[in-house]
Design brief:
Elements: H1 6-9, E1 23-24, H2 36-48, H3 60-70, E2 77-80, H4 82-94, E3 100-105, H5 109-117, E4 121-126, H6 135-142, E5 147-151, H7 163-172, E6 176-180, H8 184-187, E7 201-206, E8 219-222, H9 225-234, H10 242-253, H11 258-277, E9 282-284, E10 291-296, H12 301-310, E11 313-314, E12 316-317, E13 326-330, H13 334-349
Parallel strand pairs: 1-11, 3-4, 3-5, 5-6, 6-7
Antiparallel strand pairs: 2-8, 7-8, 9-10, 10-13, 12-13
């Protein structure tokens, strides 16, 4: 296929099983939908606006609500079509072909995917033995990078980069330092407070996890006004539909119910961690996100994944060499977690 770039042809399809008949614990979504009354409110508002007109390009009303939710000035908020779009926009607006970005591994695969299609070099800093961040190596190797993207808590390990270390990195590096806080509400640590101090620091967040809107596709960036203004110019115009904007506005006008869901996930995370730790040959990694990575000693991740899949439970497995004997489980409802633990025990006893 001569017309398509080699870098694209070489990519694996980004395909994740989405079979609703199974206990689906593979995409770090919320197990809880939003209340029906809020969906009705979204529909009611959508009935009143013309679908023949383009949406607000700046998504100003939504940005106002995000500013209220985060306590960050609205001029420093940029909302987008999932944080994936924000990640793409960041790479697109900081790097030319041949430039370098730095990521950690194992880490979120989308950073590398986007960079490789754009012919951007990706430098990877391995996480330490316990999956902690190697801040010295990040600073050392990040010096020539145009962009450094670090997820904290990190996906798929759930480990965190402490805010003091983030400040050290932003202080010692010239490139843009993007902190991906997709799982912020489960850990409550944020680099947002440093944005004023370090002009090269930005934060990326999503509505897909604790805010329960993975299907709607909404994410946002918090950054200095001048940085955000440039990012806004680089992305496609009108990437957020009226449907997305309205759903985000309605949710953030009614956020009271969200906290109980987060508390429930945190309780369940502790319970699943303990359940995993009691199973012979399984070692969970402590996590501050809504998922747990666990290592299995006597079976490959691929084989255990298959066994659980046959038993009706879908987890996430990885091709990364350090994760060949690991799987990641998203924390679901108490009932889903019980089924997962029971099926895992059975699979390990076979
Ligand atoms: C670290 C991290 N960043 C970004 C995303 C993508 O989020 P969104 O649904 O907003 O594109 C994910 C989703 O799994 C993630 O784990």
């Amino acid at each position: 296929m001569n017309q398509i770039k080699r870098k694209v042809v070489e990519l694996h399809e980004y395909a994740v099983p989405q079979d609703p008949r199974r206990v689906k614990l593979n995409q770090n979504e919320s197990p809880f939908d939003i209340p029906a009354a809020l969906k009705e409110e979204v529909f009611a508002r959508l009935r009143q606006v013309g679908w023949n007109r383009y949406p607000s390009g700046q998504a100003h009303a939504l940005a106002e609500r995000i500013a209220g939710y985060t306590g960050f000035p609205v001029a420093g908020v940029l909302a987008g079509n999932g944080s994936n779009e924000m990640i793409q926009t960041l790479i697109y607006s900081t790097c030319d072909s041949g430039d370098r970005i730095l990521v950690v591994e194992p880490g979120f695969s989308v950073y590398r995917r986007v960079a490789s299609v754009m012919n951007i070099d990706v430098v990877t800093v391995p996480l330490k033995e316990d999956f902690g961040f190697d801040t010295d190596a990040i600073i050392d190797q990040g010096k020539g990078a145009k962009l450094i993207i670090l997820a904290t808590p990190n996906n798929p390990t759930g480990t965190v980069l402490r805010v003091d270390d983030i400040a050290d990195i932003a202080n010692q590096i010239n490139g843009l330092v993007a902190i991906d806080e997709a799982y912020y509400e489960f850990c409550r640590e944020t680099a947002q407070g440093f944005i004023e101090r370090f002009e090269n620091l930005i934060v990326i967040r999503t509505f897909s996890k604790s805010l329960r809107l993975a299907g709607i596709r909404l994410g946002y960036v918090l950054g200095r006004e001048d940085v955000v203004r440039e990012l806004a110019k680089a992305r496609l115009p009108f990437s957020l539909s009226i449907f997305q904007q309205t759903a985000g506005e309605v949710l953030l006008e009614n956020p009271e119910f969200l906290e109980a869901g987060v508390r429930e996930i945190l309780r369940e995370r502790d319970r699943v961690f303990e359940g995993l730790a009691k199973i012979r040959d399984i070692s969970p990694v402590p996590s501050l996100a809504n998922f747990l990575l666990f290592q299995c000693r006597c079976i490959t991740g691929r084989d255990l994944y298959q066994k659980l899949y046959q038993a009706g439970v879908v987890l996430r497995r990885f091709d990364h060499p350090r994760l060949e004997s690991s799987l990641r489980v998203t924390i679901g409802t108490a009932q889903e977690n019980d089924i997962f633990l029971e099926k895992l025990r059975e699979a390990m006893e076979e």
